[in-house]
Amino acid sequence: MAERTESGGTHEPARRDTYTAESLLAVAVEVFNRRGYDGTSMEHLSRAAGISKSSIYHHVRSKEELLRRAVGRALDGLFGSLEETGAREGRAVDRLEYVVRRTVEVLVAELPYVTLLLRVRGNTETERWALERRREFDHRVADLVKQAVAEGDLRSDLDARLATRLLFGMVNSLVEWYRPQGSAHGAAATAEELADTVTGLAFHGLRA
Amino acid sequence: MAERTESGGTHEPARRDTYTAESLLAVAVEVFNRRGYDGTSMEHLSRAAGISKSSIYHHVRSKEELLRRAVGRALDGLFGSLEETGAREGRAVDRLEYVVRRTVEVLVAELPYVTLLLRVRGNTETERWALERRREFDHRVADLVKQAVAEGDLRSDLDARLATRLLFGMVNSLVEWYRPQGSAHGAAATAEELADTVTGLAFHGLRA
């Protein structure tokens, strides 16, 4: 694990740059999530990584490139699940349940990256691209919902669009409270337990 | 409706103070939600309200007092629902469903105030008080869930704590995407339609 500091003075000696593109991205995403993307400067990233700004520029052209790589990683995970067999074959309701389950798993596996994606505001070109991709994902899921209603497998008394929003509101809330190691307020749940609870609640409801 | 501006120069003439405590609070909450509580100064509030800082101090002692009143209004709504007959009589599962329905209604009725409450971080005494009250509300709901499981009305194969988190993750997501007047991405739903969809999904599931 790379040694990191953010508290030191401006003249602290930079350590030797042993980062890979991936490990530097992990540091950047942690800082983006803590300070907000807009509130993060290259100076903040330099301090958090413990290397000079010119060393960072050796890896990436700009702060925005780090954002693009980070949200790209989250989006690749989400869209990747849509290409899997479980999302492409069978009845729409089962494909929908598969996608919801895989989305939970991607959220857990890529938690800081998806957290960043869900906080994107749209102030830069990269952010607007990320929002557009998110909308595309939502449309793909909404199509599954419509198809499942048409096939008679989803309740038709619920508004499909509202239900989709609520379903992903529930799933996306994970980034706010789920901590892989557990916390003072709750034991850790595995990705599988989470996915079971999400799909159980969403598709079959809480009532016995 | 009071005339408001935030773009004017620092020397623009202050308008006559026609605010009540409540209408000034509404302006403050809008600014808190837009800029973040930490990022809002009395100067920002003065510009948004179009009255001088000293006029604001005529209504409230501090920025923190505005926060306390605002989150207090949200908390009063939430805790108030726990005292209603539907939350106090009958089987636990029905009381739980009643509380979820009323929570949705309170969110819609007090949207900016609950939005602010859900964004509280814990940096000030008032914020820590609000977080403590939120935890108290969560415990009251968790007790209902446990009781409903004990009465055999909730599925026992789902982790009650996780399910409660997910349930409120879904409900609380409303503050991120629900707009009473609708938007480019969706028609407006009434509080009743929202509450029907939330309780239908959560208690009976999406499958037909």
TrEMBL record, chains A, B:
Keywords: DNA-binding, Transcription, Transcription regulation. It holds the Pfam family TetR_C_24. It comes from the Bacteria. Residues 41-60 bind DNA. InterPro entries: Homeodomain-like_sf (IPR009057), HTH-type_TetR-like_transc_reg (IPR050109), HTH_TetR (IPR001647), KstR2_TetR_C (IPR041490), Tet_transcr_reg_TetR-rel_C_sf (IPR036271). Residues 18-78 form the HTH tetR-type domain. This is TetR/AcrR family transcriptional regulator. It comes from Streptomyces thermolineatus.
